[in-house]
Design goal:
Helicase, Ruva Protein, domain 3
Amino acid sequence: MLPELDELTRDELMSLMSKYRLKPSKRLSQHFVVDPTVIKDMVNHVDAGSRVLEIGTGIGTLTYYLAKRASQVITIEVDGRLVKIAERLLGDLRNVSIIQGDALRLPWPQVDIVVSNVPYSITSALIIRIIREGAPKVLLTIQREVANRLVSEPGGDDYGRLTVITRCNYNVALLNTYTPEAFYPSPEVYSSLVMMVRREPCYQNLEELELVTNMLFRHRNRVLRWVLNKYLGSEALNDVVKGGIDVGLRVRQLGVDDIVSITKILRPYMGRLKTVIGTLNIDYDTH
């Protein structure tokens, strides 16, 4: 039994680490929350009575307090060692279901909100999975660098492919930022809590938008004219010019609406573009 959330302390969270002799896995990018502020911030942004999907149970600390607020918590953990600990900590809570497996591969239930203290190694992949699932609301603690990318504006250093894909589907708000000491073991970077709320998608065909942004953000500092010529030739370039797009802009200067307009214009070229670009499963972290 854990104390009430308002009474939770860092010492109590650290004592749990010691109690279970926890050795975090570097391979799985495990960093456990030991600052009560992080847990309070996340729980306080979950509506009472919500149905919650938690990605990454850990030892179940956040899960415990989510269950006190939610009607149901379905939580997925890939590490069997942690599942056994969480089952002991959460065993008396009837509204918690623990699933062992890879959340990027397992089917997801329909829920009101997805919550995760995200393992850094899967941040971009998890965000893209969330977009594909169409989760109505999302709370994530992620690297500050990635959080900055999600809220960046065109022309900014952090603006990129992940920005466009996410903002096309979600309104994103940066809620708080935490020092490395908020987690055990302490990561080398700051972390941020972001909230994503589903909006009407700015473009319905996510695969086409992924394909075009894949092409564009391979060369984010090049002018649009150069990129279109390189991959699709003069015919596609002329079509984009006729569509009223300024092809003298650099890719990083293109707004979400600009990129949606370009994608619509390039629909006749999608087959060719897929052949030229190749697989869609590229690393969002490099774009």
